[in-house]
Amino acid sequence: MKISLFNIANFRVDGGAMFGVVPKVLWSRVCSSDENNLIVLTLRSLIVETDGHLILVDTGWGDKQE
Questions:
Q1: Fewer CB within 10 Å, N side or C side of the chain?
Q2: pTM for the full model?
Q3: Of the candidates 10, 31, 35, 9, which has an alpha carbon nearest to the alpha carbon of residue 22?
Q4: Are 31 and 10 in contact (CB under 8 A)?
Q5: What are 44's strand-pairing partners?
Q6: Mind listing the pLDDT tens digit for each residue in 1-58?
Q7: pLDDT exceeds 80 at position 64
Q8: Residue 11's closest CA among 36, 44, 43?
């Protein structure tokens, strides 16, 4: 069995909205932001290769973002 990541899209969101009540001084240690306080996130799915089959595991985007 082989499992791979499939990058679908990169998008930017407000870092403050993403991390909520966690202070920027803490989350900025692991996730840098631009001058507008936006951070880059990536939407990924899994591809599973097994016994001659390809399986796409896609958890979906949801309807919260446009």
A1: C
A2: 0.67
A3: 31
A4: no
A5: 7
A6: 999 999 988 999 999 999 999 999 999 999 999 999 999 999 899 999 999 999 999 8
A7: no
A8: 43
CB 46 within 8 A of CB 4: yes
Token pair of 51 as six digits: 């016994």
Contact by Cβ (8 Å): 55, 47: yes
CA distance 14 to 40: 9
Is residue 45 within 8 Å of 24, Cβ to Cβ?
no
Rounded to 5 degrees, φ, ψ at 43 are -95, 120
**What one-letter code names the amino acid at 23?**
P
Residue type, 22: V
Please give the Cα distance from 29 to 56 (Å, whole number).
33
In the numeric block, which tokens belong to residue 25? 């001084």
